């Protein structure tokens, strides 16, 4: 007989103990933003140098606006990285992110189809990596956790692989009655 009881006390996802990202995750984020801002500032300097009309119209705004923009984005990165966290639990992986719009993503390990560890040049230098988890039936990344140490990524990948092997190879127990 089918029974569908209503659950009165829902488990709170706030009870999840999230582990913070690696110590160098903030440095990685700041270096990535600087890699964007330095060429942008270079282009703006070149425009001001070669185009006097542009320079006279925008010089004051650029001299005030660009440092403010860089400072605000660097402060935002500090808050953003500090609010991110991940948790590897018995049957799922949880990741929280967001400053203004906060998001918690929980991916059941049974749904993970495959995983990738990604390291860019700055991440390699800082011994960081990103773990990408793809679920069954999906083409795009279902969960991406950046700012992890490379060893954490490898350990998480091994944990998920072991979980999947346990799922696909259930051990049969014989029961003597």
Automatic annotation (TrEMBL):
Pfam families in UniProt: bPH_2
- The residue ranges crossing the membrane are 34-54, 60-79
Could you list this entry's UniProt keywords, alphabetically sorted.
Answer: Membrane, Transmembrane, Transmembrane helix
Q: Does the keyword Transmembrane helix apply?
A: yes
Asked whether the UniProt record includes Transmembrane helix among its keywords, one would answer: yes
Report which superkingdom the organism of origin falls in.
Bacteria
Q: Which InterPro entries match?
A: YdbS-like_PH
YdbS-like PH domain mapped to chain residues: 85-142
| Name of the protein this chain belongs to | YdbS-like PH domain-containing protein
According to its UniProt entry, this protein's organism is Pseudoalteromonas carrageenovora IAM 12662
């Amino acid at each position: 007989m089918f029974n569908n009881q209503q659950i009165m006390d829902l488990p709170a996802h706030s009870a999840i103990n999230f582990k913070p990202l690696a110590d160098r995750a903030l440095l990685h984020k700041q270096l990535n933003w600087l890699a964007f801002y330095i060429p942008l500032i270079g282009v703006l300097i070149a425009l001001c140098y070669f185009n006097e009309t542009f320079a006279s119209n925008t010089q004051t705004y650029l001299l005030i606006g660009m440092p403010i923009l860089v400072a605000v984005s660097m402060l935002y990165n500090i808050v953003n990285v500090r609010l991110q966290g991940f948790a590897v639990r018995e049957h799922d992986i949880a990741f929280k992110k967001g400053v203004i719009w906060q998001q918690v993503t929980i991916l059941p390990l049974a749904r993970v189809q495959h995983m990738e560890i990604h390291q860019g040049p700055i991440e390699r230098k800082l011994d960081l990596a990103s773990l990408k988890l793809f679920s069954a039936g999906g083409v795009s990344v279902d969960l991406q956790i950046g700012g992890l140490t490379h060893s954490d990524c490898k350990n998480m990948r091994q944990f998920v692989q072991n979980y999947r092997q346990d799922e696909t190879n259930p051990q049969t127990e014989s029961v003597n009655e």
